[in-house]
Amino acid sequence: MKSSRAVRTVALFEALKGAVALLVATGSLTLMHRDVYELALRLVQHAHLNPAARYPGIFLEAASHLQDSRILLLALGAAAYSLVRGIEAYGLFNARTWAELLAAASGAIYVPFELAELDRHPSWLGLGLLLANLAVVAIMVGALLHKRPIGRNAG
User: Fold this and answer.
1) pTM
2) What is the per-residue pLDDT for 155?
3) Where do the H-state alpha helices sit in 30-151?
C-alpha cells in the first residue's frame, strides 16, 4: 500500500533524527571537564575564521559560558529527544495511531516558526524544511484518515 510505504519512510526519517540526536548527546558528554572555549577557539582558527567577526564571536561567547551542568542538560535533552523519536519510529513502523498523531503534531508545530523564518530570511533551506514538515503532516493526516474515513459512523 502506498500510504504504508510513505509512513514507513517517515518512520525511517524519525529514526534517523533520533540517531543524530543520540550522537549529539554522546558527543556533548565528551566536552565535560574540558576548556570548551579553548576548543571553540581552535575550531574557529582551524576554519580560518576571524574570531572578532560577528558569528565566530557569537560562537566563542556562547562557548565561554558553557559549563559542565549546561553540557549535561544539553546531553540529557538530546537523549530525551532521541528516545521520543525512537518510540515514534517504532510506532510508525507498526502502524500505531498514537504514533501517527504524534508525527503529525510534531511536524505541524514547526510550521508557523518556519513560515515566520521564511518571511524574515527567505532561503532554499528554510523552504525545504517547511516543505518536508508539510509533507510529513500530510502523510500522517492521510494515514489517520485512511484508518477512520470521514463520514463513517463508528457504531
Assistant:
1) 0.75
2) 45
3) 36-46, 54-64, 68-93, 97-108, 111-120, 124-147
